[in-house]
Design goal:
The protein is α/β, with parallel strands linked by helices. The protein has one domain: Thiamin diphosphate (ThDP)-binding fold, Pyr/PP domains (Rossmann fold, 3-Layer(aba) Sandwich). Helix content is 43%, strand content 10%. The chain is built from eleven helices and seven strands. The strands form two sheets. A five-stranded parallel beta sheet has the order 1-2-3-7-6, with helices on both faces. Helix 8 links the parallel strand 6 and strand 7 (229-234).
Length: 322
């Protein structure tokens, strides 16, 4: 990869991490409504899967959408404004942390229902095929969502119709607080691809280079009309399931083991070791990200809130008697 691309990927991963860290403290300070489900530690999955896609390609996300949205191109300021429930937010202030997205960059607004985005991705894939656009859709899901019935129906449909969909399971070991070994008997969730005739691959989800290579193969296959691919990205969320989760179900030894595999730390070490850039250059890039986030927070604070009458927008009713 060219140096510019590598630095862009690193910057995007740092942006996701620092954005979510800032959001976490803003919530704790009582400056934001609602709750959050964060993806600390899973940045390589988002950036590795999405960095080569065009705006005309699509992505469906999960109830943990911030990293995916920022990686797909939703702007930092519009994301931050959404967190402050401002009308200039990426979803007009209607969505909040679990419903971010921006169709102008192919980021389908998140559906908080576990696994809910996967059937939508298959519908998008069918649309792309019918319109002969050669565009693709990446469908993210967690390990817990991979057990949902709708997800299996969607995978089967995508396989039968050879749709341009890449299924990306972010296996962070836990569905909320339940370990995957209590909900699935297969060693690797990628084994399930064989049931649908879908090529599948297990990938180190904390290695952005490995994720990128696997994503490129799957995307090329989808664009050429060969159908879907299933990628299982082995990863780990540093934080809890949501902001009130103290992680009592995980051991400190397990957390320490995965901390050594931090995707940002690994990419930073690789860039320096390969002499792609210096530590000082990466430090400057990280400082720039911090500044951008400061500016986004100030921007969001200044932006207008929705008007009371805006609550009636985007509301639809069916005809007939109630």
């Amino acid at each position: 990869m060219k140096t510019d691309m590598l630095l862009e990927m690193y910057e995007r991963m740092v942006l996701i991490r620092k954005y979510e860290e800032r959001i976490y403290f803003l919530f704790l300070e009582g400056n934001m409504p609602g709750t959050i489900h964060q993806s600390h530690g899973q940045e390589a999955c988002a950036v590795g899967m999405l960095h080569t896609l065009a705006n005309e390609d699509y992505m469906t996300t999960t109830h943990r959408p911030a990293g995916h949205c920022l990686a797909k191109g939703v702007t930092l300021k519009r994301m931050m404004a959404e967190m402050f429930a401002k009308s200039s937010g990426c979803c007009g202030g209607y969505g909040g942390a679990m419903h971010t997205g921006d169709m102008s960059v192919g980021a389908v607004p998140a559906i908080a229902i576990v696994g809910g985005g996967v059937p939508v991705a298959v519908g998008i894939g069918l649309s792309c095929k019918m319109r002969r656009t050669q565009n693709v859709c990446v469908a993210f899901m967690g390990d817990g969502a991979s057990n949902e019935g709708a997800v299996h129906e969607a995978m089967n449909g995508a396989a039968i119709w050879k749709l341009p969909v890449i299924f990306a399971i972010e296996n962070n070991l836990y569905g909320a607080s339940t370990h995957i070994n209590k909900t699935a008997c297969v060693k690797d969730l990628a084994e399930r691809g064989a049931a649908y005739g879908i090529p599948a691959e297990v990938v180190d989800g904390n290695d952005v280079f490995a994720v990128s290579k696997a994503a490129k193969r799957a995307i090329a296959r989808a664009r050429s009309g060969e159908g879907p691919t299933l990628l299982e990205l082995k990863t780990y969320r540093i934080g809890g399931h949501s902001r009130n989760d103290a992680n009592g179900y995980r051991t400190r030894e397990e957390e320490a083991k995965w901390a050594q595999k931090d995707p940002i730390k690994r990419m930073r070490e690789t860039l320096i070791l390969d002499k792609t850039c210096t530590a000082a250059e990466l430090d400057a890039l990280e400082a720039k990200v911090e500044k951008d986030i400061d500016e986004a927070v100030e921007y969001a604070r200044r932006e207008p809130s929705p008007r009371p009458e805006d609550a009636l927008n985007h509301v639809y009713a069916t005809g007939g008697l109630l």
